Automatic annotation (TrEMBL):
One of its GO terms (biological process) is DNA-templated transcription elongation. Residues 12-26 have a biased composition (Basic and acidic residues). GO terms for molecular function: DNA binding; RNA polymerase binding; translation elongation factor activity. This is Transcription elongation factor, GreA/GreB family. Residues 9-72 form the Transcription elongation factor GreA/GreB N-terminal domain. Residues 83-146 form the Transcription elongation factor GreA/GreB C-terminal domain. It comes from the Bacteria. Residues 1-48 are annotated as: Disordered. Coiled coil: none annotated. Pfam families: GreA_GreB, GreA_GreB_N. Keywords: Elongation factor, Protein biosynthesis, Transcription, Transcription regulation. InterPro entries: GreA/GreB_C_sf (IPR036953), Tscrpt_elong_fac_GreA/B_C (IPR001437), Tscrpt_elong_fac_GreA/B_fam (IPR023459), Tscrpt_elong_fac_GreA/B_N (IPR022691), Tscrpt_elong_fac_GreA/B_N_sf (IPR036805).
Length: 150
């Protein structure tokens, strides 16, 4: 169990998780009446609606459970810590610096810990060459620096 007050998440990430959790719970509450109506399905169109309502509820329930576990237990110990700063040199010579996050965000300098690139960085140090999958195939980069959060 994670003992820190933030559950091993940065304050920004924790806030994002809590916001998504609130939104998902509201969506789930809105979907609940549809489930009751769906169970009384008559014709095939009604049955299709019923199936869709149950699938939506199941998807919402899964994501809610994932977020609750993240808040309770923190990110997996098999991932880079939330807030780690990593600088990489890509095969074209360009260097980029990223902040590792557990929860995806919109900023271009964020790297999710469970992405192919994030996973390739686990256990690495400056000077290591990494390989990871992209939509265009395998790519490589060199770790210039990797700084864990304080």
């Amino acid at each position: 169990m994670v003992t820190s007050a933030t559950g091993g998440l940065s304050p920004e990430t924790r806030e994002q998780v809590l916001k998504e959790l609130t939104d998902l719970r509201a969506q789930r509450a809105q979907n609940t009446p549809r489930l009751g109506e769906a169970d009384k399905a008559g014709d095939s169109a009604d049955q299709a609606d019923a199936l869709e309502a149950h699938e939506v509820a199941a998807r919402l329930d899964r994501r809610i459970a994932e977020l609750e576990a993240l808040l309770e237990h923190g990110p997996s110990s098999h991932l880079l810590a939330d807030g780690t700063v990593v600088t990489l040199r890509f095969s074209d010579g360009e260097e980029e610096t990223f902040r590792v996050v557990t929860f995806p965000g919109d900023a271009p300098d964020l790297l999710t810990s469970d992405s192919p690139l994030g996973l390739a960085l686990v256990g690495r140090k400056a000077g290591d060459e990494i390989r990871y999958r992209t939509p265009r195939g395998e790519a490589t980069a060199t770790v210039v620096s990797l700084k864990a959060p304080h």
